[in-house]
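Batch job 17 of 40 flagged for manual review because the log was empty.
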Amino acid sequence: MKKCYFWLKALTLEVLIFVGSWFLPFFKKVNLKWVNPDKQKPILLIHGYLHNGFVWFYHGRKLKNKGFGPIYTISIKNPFSSIEQISLEIKQKVKSIQEETGISDLILIGHSMGGLVASYFALNIAEKNTISDVITIASPLEGTALAVLGFGMSAKEMRRNSNFIKDLDKKLLLEENINFYHIASLTDQLIRPYTSALLGNKEDRQYILNGLGHAAMLYSKKVNDKISSWLS
């Protein structure tokens, strides 16, 4: 009965967020930014498949109010291209942030596909010592069975046992210089199995929720508090 309650709660929240997401296209060109007077290490928030930078308005504002930042977002131009191609967009954004702030190392936080993009960029494209931390939220680090329903190269790469996933996981598990943190939900409808959003055996760098769906984690106080504790 308790399990049914958590799934019902997650599904209800997802429906409300899904309806709200209809308005996202109106904010496609909006890249939110929060500047903290006490300049800290810059944070770049990377959205997932079919979303845009506006979905970060909750976490961005909360993190800024807690003293983190400056905080930046990006709206990916072509979410259907390969994750490698998307990562080149991240490269340009990171460069502009470095030039604007005068700080060379950043923190990346990605939701869903955005977590894969952040991880791929940090491991394969970023210059050495320019990414200190990567936090993934509901990201299919081991792929997801539901990726077969998606379109484009990025969706193919998110499938279970894809060559992209195998190569990324191998590098991620061997990485020692970048701190990786992973957040998952037992009731994530899109990341199946939910354990796909977790990688490695460092329990202090993993956080598992219940009663939250895939998109609802973008608006969760618990998620925000955990991110804050990891970065503090």
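Reviewer: the log was empty due to a logging misconfiguration, but the result itself is present. The mean pLDDT is 89. Unflagging and moving on to job 18.
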